[in-house]
């Protein structure tokens, strides 16, 4: 750490000297600063107003689609800028001096947020990349099958389709409910467990459905799956794999509490982390059944390749190659930001705003609420249907009223809101009033 600090001070000292020379050469002119960086008050984690002001998002608009491709808070943007400048000024020197320490710090921050050992998590660029690596890498034999649902997103379905097309793996889909607004946890668990067979090796589900806002009872599913697996040998048990992107950063639960074997998530949605970051978390027993497709750049892999250590390294899901390191390393600050707020308070805030929005929308004639009213079966996504216009038209009309929403990329499609730490009660009330006006 001492050498790193000296190196960084030297770098900053060089920048200071360069700036001083520039100032002397232009001493007769008043300096002109175009687009000066905004100044942010220090974060007060007890104040949601302070939290909102850590973001560059236009507060003149109600930002109900901020989760789609999130804007990171000030601390994360600062870390990105520092790493980018360091890499731009001394690519190899900065990379070699920072990479190992930055990776260790990131693993510690992620492990603290997720729970479990720091060795359980590997980093990717997105949820889709993580799902592709995971479902393409779980070891399966002829006759094995994967069970998924009709409600999952394109990335899960397509990852499994590609695996099936490549190797002939059987993939089955089950419908868990007809109407998400009236679905129950028992109904969902029973529908899923009744579809299990002795050949089921993977159960692929999504934590919070981006199509309807329904939150799956993952803990209850895990418990039911444990009963199914009880008398099976470890390599024949069904692994519970979860696309967690719309619960991660919005719900107070980690993979240990949920009881899943794998959790895949991007970090640039509800966590409000740097863009182009994601992760796969897995239990050691589950990782033992994973076969990587992309070479890792971890030292053990190189040592084996060079013949320095004949012991083959454990399977690693962390893709090798050079990445957008300034974003990856700044993910540490995103975890730290949420740690300061606490996962519990973020979840409570998200749920309280979503409940307020659901109650308001449900009271409007011509509006059908799609998302379950129960907080146990929902999170920050709130979906609805308007009799007066299509979801796409509603997004456009609401935007003219400074309300930013989105549509669900499914058939059927719905109007979708996302309450989060960048929205507040006034935003919710404004949205309800606007929907009432156009319905």
Write structural notes for this entry.
The chain is of the alpha/beta class and 439 residues long. The protein folds into two domains: 102-341, Type I PLP-dependent aspartate aminotransferase-like (Major domain) (Aspartate Aminotransferase, domain 2, 3-Layer(aba) Sandwich), CATH 3.40.640; 343-438, Alpha-Beta Complex (Aspartate Aminotransferase, domain 1). Helices cover 44% and strands 13% of the residues. It has 15 helices and 13 strands. The protein has helices at 2-25, 48-52, 74-89, 91-114, 127-137, 154-167, 185-194, 218-229, 255-258, 284-287, 299-305, 325-341, 343-362, 391-400, 425-438, and strands at residues 62-63, 121-124, 145-149, 170-174, 200-206, 239-243, 262-266, 278-282, 367-369, 381-386, 403-404, 406-407, 415-418. The strands form three sheets. The protein has a seven-stranded mixed beta sheet with strand order 2-8-7-6-5-3-4, sandwiched between helices. It has a four-stranded antiparallel beta sheet with strand order 9-10-13-12. The chain has a two-stranded parallel sheet with strand order 1-11. Helix 7 (185-194) runs parallel beside helix 8 (218-229) and helix 13 runs parallel beside helix 15 (425-438). The radius of gyration is 24 Å and the shape is globular.
CATH-assigned fold name of the largest domain: Aspartate Aminotransferase, domain 2
Radius of gyration: 24 Å
Overall geometry comes to globular
Helical stretch tally: 15
Task: Outline the secondary-structure elements.
Elements: H1 2-25, H2 48-52, E1 62-63, H3 74-89, H4 91-114, E2 121-124, H5 127-137, E3 145-149, H6 154-167, E4 170-174, H7 185-194, E5 200-206, H8 218-229, E6 239-243, H9 255-258, E7 262-266, E8 278-282, H10 284-287, H11 299-305, H12 325-341, H13 343-362, E9 367-369, E10 381-386, H14 391-400, E11 403-404, E12 406-407, E13 415-418, H15 425-438
Parallel strand pairs: 1-11, 3-4, 3-5, 5-6, 6-7
Antiparallel strand pairs: 2-8, 7-8, 9-10, 10-13, 12-13
């Amino acid at each position: 750490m001492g050498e790193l600090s000296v190196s960084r001070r030297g770098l900053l000292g060089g920048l200071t000297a360069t700036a001083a020379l520039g100032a002397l050469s232009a001493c007769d002119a008043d300096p002109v600063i175009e687009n000066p960086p905004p100044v942010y008050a220090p974060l007060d984690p007890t104040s949601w107003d302070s939290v909102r002001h850590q973001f560059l998002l236009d507060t003149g608009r109600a930002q109900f689609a901020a989760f789609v491709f999130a804007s990171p808070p000030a601390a994360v943007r600062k870390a990105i800028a520092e790493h980018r400048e360091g890499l731009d000024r001394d690519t190899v020197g900065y990379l070699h001096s920072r990479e190992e320490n930055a990776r260790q710090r990131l693993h510690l921050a992620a492990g603290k947020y997720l729970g479990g050992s720091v060795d359980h998590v590997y980093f990717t660029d997105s949820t889709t990349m993580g799902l592709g690596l995971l479902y393409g890498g779980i070891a399966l034999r002829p006759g094995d099958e994967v069970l998924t649902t009709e409600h999952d997103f394109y990335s899960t379905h397509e990852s499994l389709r590609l695996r099936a097309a490549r190797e002939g793996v059987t993939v089955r889909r089950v419908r868990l409910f007809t109407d998400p607004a009236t679905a129950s946890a028992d109904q969902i668990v029973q529908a899923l467990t009744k579809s299990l067979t002795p050949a089921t090796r993977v159960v692929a589900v999504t934590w919070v459905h981006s199509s309807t806002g329904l939150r799956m009872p993952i803990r209850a599913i895990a418990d039911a799956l444990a009963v199914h697996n009880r008398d099976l040998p470890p390599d024949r048990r069904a692994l519970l794999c979860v696309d967690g992107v719309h619960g991660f950063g919005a719900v107070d639960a980690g993979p240990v509490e949920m009881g899943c074997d794998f959790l895949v998530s991007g970090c640039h949605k509800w966590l409000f982390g740097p863009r182009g970051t994601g992760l796969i978390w897995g239990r050691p027993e589950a990782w033992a059944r994973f076969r990587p497709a992309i070479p890792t750049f971890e030292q053990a892999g190189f040592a084996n390749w060079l013949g320095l250590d004949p012991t083959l390294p454990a399977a690693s899901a962390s893709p090798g190659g050079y990445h957008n390191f300034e974003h990856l390393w700044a993910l540490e600050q995103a975890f730290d930001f949420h740690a300061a707020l606490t996962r519990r308070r973020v979840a409570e805030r998200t749920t309280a705003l979503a409940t307020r929005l659901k109650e308001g929308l449900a009271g409007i004639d011509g509006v059908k609420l799609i998302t379950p009213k129960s907080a146990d079966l929902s999170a920050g996504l709130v979906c609805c249907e308007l009799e007066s216009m299509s979801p796409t038209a509603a997004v456009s009309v609401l935007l003219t009223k400074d309300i930013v929403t989105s549509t669900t990329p499914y058939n059927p499609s719905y109007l979708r809101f996302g309450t989060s730490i960048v929205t507040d009660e006034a935003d919710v009330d404004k949205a309800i009033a606007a929907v009432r006006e156009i319905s």
